[in-house]
């Protein structure tokens, strides 16, 4: 008989990565100038905290849960790469890779089904429901197959993998990439930044690669594409690291992560996943013919 380890016995730590607002940076720079040019990596303890509700609440959160990682840079979409490299730096400096087995980075609008994640990390399976069939292909839907179970603890990176993605030259696009930053027509294979997972031994290798790789503002392309390529790391595709939102509630039950959720969606998703009394329907009779996607072209 196979024993099942209760998820509550497996330590999972959640931390939040932050930069600073323009006002915070201006206050910190003014304080540095008054102190003779010394540089601080946080506004904690400076005069900027007082009278600023956001900073006050962040400090309370940090004092209560010790889950805030913050450095002195402008927190903006174009600086997401700095934030992601900051995470690698924090893990490296604290030698977290000696105490933890895996690291997962997700966007703040990504919901993570932690029980499914833990089942996956332990080499188990994730339930297959009718509402999640659209994310599988003719190979990955075979959840009981050993080929679809995690059996690696080192040299491992996984998420929703993109291959041969074109560089966008339209200046109106959110993902426009100027030529001076990136001169090629295609990006290297990379994992969606909505949520990707790696074994802890990968983190120092990515961080070392980042120290010698020119920054671009698309953090997933940079970290899991350019830096991973420089570090000779293979990126693996898994359909349940979802980069889009589903309109079906039961999709949450069968996914590892789901992107583009609002704050109120997070609470509703958590409560739904916890509600074990609601039974999600299994796949229909003819799903193999009409619902499965083509095999991901990344190989």
From TrEMBL:
The keyword Oxidoreductase does not apply. InterPro entries: Glyco_trans_31. The keyword Transferase applies. It is found in: Golgi apparatus membrane. Keywords: Glycosyltransferase, Golgi apparatus, Membrane, Signal-anchor, Transferase, Transmembrane, Transmembrane helix. One of its GO terms (biological process) is protein O-linked glycosylation. One of its GO terms (cellular component) is Golgi membrane. Pfam families: Galactosyl_T. Its main location: Golgi. GO terms for molecular function: hexosyltransferase activity. It is a single-pass type II membrane protein. Its EC number is 2.4.1.-. Belongs to the glycosyltransferase 31 family. This is Hexosyltransferase. The lineage of its organism: Eukaryota, Metazoa, Ecdysozoa, Arthropoda, Hexapoda.
